[in-house]
């Protein structure tokens, strides 16, 4: 299993627009081989920003990489620029290979 995360430092006053952009987008993830689940997380306020993180679970790192090279990826990210800057800098990507999972039923 592989987890891909992007952290966003959303500018003050842009939180509602940022959330709406994510909630209304056509992610196409359900169509992608190897996709397991997606979460958009709203975190704490920091100095000059609110932290958000996208958290996507994949069957493997290869499945994630294949998605980033797909037409579905390009289509899902086509409108990411918006009309004004919503966050400070670029998202900070972090990818993790899962070494242990503890679930409610395991």
TrEMBL record:
InterPro entries: ABM_dom, Dimeric_a/b-barrel, Heme-degrading_MO
Pfam families given in the database record: ABM
Superkingdom of this protein's organism: Bacteria
Single GO molecular function: monooxygenase activity
This protein's record includes keyword Repressor: no
Coiled-coil region: none
KW Aminoacyl-tRNA synthetase (keyword) present: no
SUPFAM superfamilies cross-referenced by the UniProt entry: Dimeric alpha+beta barrel
Segments forming domain ABM: 2-99
Keyword terms of this UniProt record: Monooxygenase, Oxidoreductase
Name this polypeptide is given: Antibiotic biosynthesis monooxygenase
Organism: Jiella endophytica
Organism classification: Bacteria, Pseudomonadati, Pseudomonadota, Alphaproteobacteria, Hyphomicrobiales
């Amino acid at each position: 299993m592989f987890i891909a995360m992007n952290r966003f430092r959303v500018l003050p006053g842009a939180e509602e627009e940022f959330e709406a952009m994510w909630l209304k987008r056509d992610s196409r993830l359900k169509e992608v081989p190897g996709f397991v689940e997606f979460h958009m997380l709203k975190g704490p306020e920091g100095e000059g920003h609110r932290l958000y993180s996208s958290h996507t679970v994949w069957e493997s790192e290869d499945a994630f990489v294949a998605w980033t090279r797909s037409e579905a990826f390009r289509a899902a990210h086509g409108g990411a620029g918006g009309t004004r800057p919503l966050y400070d800098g670029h998202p900070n990507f972090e990818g993790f290979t899962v070494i242990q999972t503890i679930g409610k039923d395991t």
